[in-house]
Amino acid sequence: MNGSTASEGAAADEQSHGHARRSHDPDAAIADRRTEGPAAAGSDPERAPLPPGPDGVPVLGTLPRFVRDPFAFYDRLFAYGDVVSYDFGLWNNVTLFHPDDVQRVLVDDADRFRKSHVQRRSGVDFLENGLLLTEGEEWREQRTQLQPLFYREKIETFAGAMVEEARELVDSWDDGEVVDLVDAYSTLAMRVLGRTLFGVDVHDGDGYEVIRRAATSVQERADAGSVTAFLPDWVPTPANRRFARDTDAFREYVDRLVRERRGSDPADADDLLTLLVGLGEGDALSDEAVRDQLMTFLFAGHETTSLALSYATHALARRPDIADDLRAEAAAAGDLDAAAIRSLDLTDRVVSESLRTYPPAYVLFREPTEDVVVGGYRIPAGTNISLPIWRLHTDPRWWDDPESFDPSRWLDEDPDRPEHAYLPFGAGPRHCIGMRFASLELRATLATVFREIAFDPVPADAGEPSFEAAATLQPSEPLRVRVSKR
Questions:
Q1: For a surface tag, which of 76, 190, 235, 273 has the fewest beta carbons within 10 Å of its beta carbon?
Q2: pTM for the full model?
């Protein structure tokens, strides 16, 4: 993921094949480069110039450079300014690096931008009728229907279940055991989701394995470091075949959940599954929308949370001083109910810093429905716009020592930092509906786990992880730690 190598030569030294470590060139971002753009294009697309950007090779454009190392490619783009254009074959692309331009797309003029065709091709297109990908009035109706389940008062009733499941995870570990964090936290996140939002035990039967296989196939198909990510669905690549097989099995599993819940009295349960089944029976949602909605929450709800917990735990294992302070804070809080979890200031800062440094949703995509002017440049309708969240989170213009994992940076708000320099859950009307749920789960889990466990990284000299650019920010190597029970 990381870094800011502003020149071709420096970028060539990065790891290839979609893996990268951080390597910022601070000179590339000393000043607010918005002063370097066109002086007075105004908001008239006919007068505004197209953005600058790198040239590519015939037919493929800059795609070969992107596939070789997606993160280093974005770092090279940063040298061109805050609004940069480039082509992937027939795809026209623009990347926005300034928080104010991101705010324009996600918040101020959100109705003029829709989810990009690239997002639909990024491994999650099988969720086309769910909240993640629907548009317009259909999306607004779905959001309104689901929002009551995600009010703070409702979410905080899940705190006890989150803590109990985390304790069970701790109890399952042996002293001295080496744990793969992504595997462990994926199991935990799925159990929490099943218990709180679905009223089912996803580990009863084949549910967990079905969902994990589908998630793995999604990541493989969306791996931007592979040419297969850019091939049509009908091309019979191994990744496409596995994706079709595993997502079909995922659909069948969710259809089975719906059949089992149908006919039950809605008064008997107050969860997402029952709500959606009731909406389907009342014709407020189609059967496809019910299924895709459930699949959206099962996939996105466990994938992003398990990654966030894994990166935070691995970072704390490398910073035992911070881990010790977090452990003391959790121990002093007593019973970890919702009120106690809210009081955990350091834990909250650790979560914020981990999401800044390792955002699972590391890039967002939009496309304008009409020609627009952003940052003084014309962006034609249908252009794929990428919003590199990880790059905003580590831009030296907004963050001191951006590569350092430093929860203390959240003690005081920086009045000069743009609001949208930090957006781990997105922004605007389409920000993540599960933001409060995820935030509570992250804090509850870290507090529960760390007050009983100390971790050492494996290997002992493990440094910053490297990453793969898939549907979410994936570690390119397993994140392993050794358990020491307190």
A1: 235
A2: 0.89
What domains can you pick out in the chain, each with its CATH number?
8-485 (1.10.630.10)
Give Cβ neighbours of residue 259 (< 8 Å, ≥ 6 apart).
Answer: none
| SS3 of residue 202 by DSSP | coil
Q: Where are the beta strands (DSSP E) in 411-470?
A: 453-458, 467-469
Q: Judge whether 20 and 466 are in contact, CB under 8 Å.
A: yes
Neighbour tally for 382: CB within 10 Å: 15
Alpha-carbon gap, residue 381 to 395, rounded angstroms: 28
Name the phi and psi angles at 27, rounded to 5: -65, -20
Two tokens at 208? 């967990």
Backbone φ and ψ for 114, nearest 5 degrees, come out as -125, 170
470 contacts: CB under 8 Å, gap ≥ 6? 123, 218, 219, 220, 222, 223, 224
Sign of torsion over alpha carbons 63, 67, 73, 74: positive
Q: 462: which 2 tokens?
A: 């493990």
Calculate the alpha carbon distances from 68 to 21, 53, 57, 232 in Å. Answer: 14, 18, 14, 20
Distances (CA, A) of 301 to 114, 198, 215, 320, 432: 22, 12, 11, 29, 10
Element (H, E) at 141: helix 136-146
pLDDT for 102-156, tens place per residue?
999 999 999 999 999 877 666 677 888 889 889 999 999 999 999 998 999 999 9
Beta strand pairing call for 178-180 and 372-374: unpaired
Mapping DSSP onto H, E and C, the string for 7-47 reads: CHHHHHCCCCCCEECCCECHHHHCCCHHHHCCCCCCCCCCC
The Cα 402–Cα 425 span in angstroms is: 19
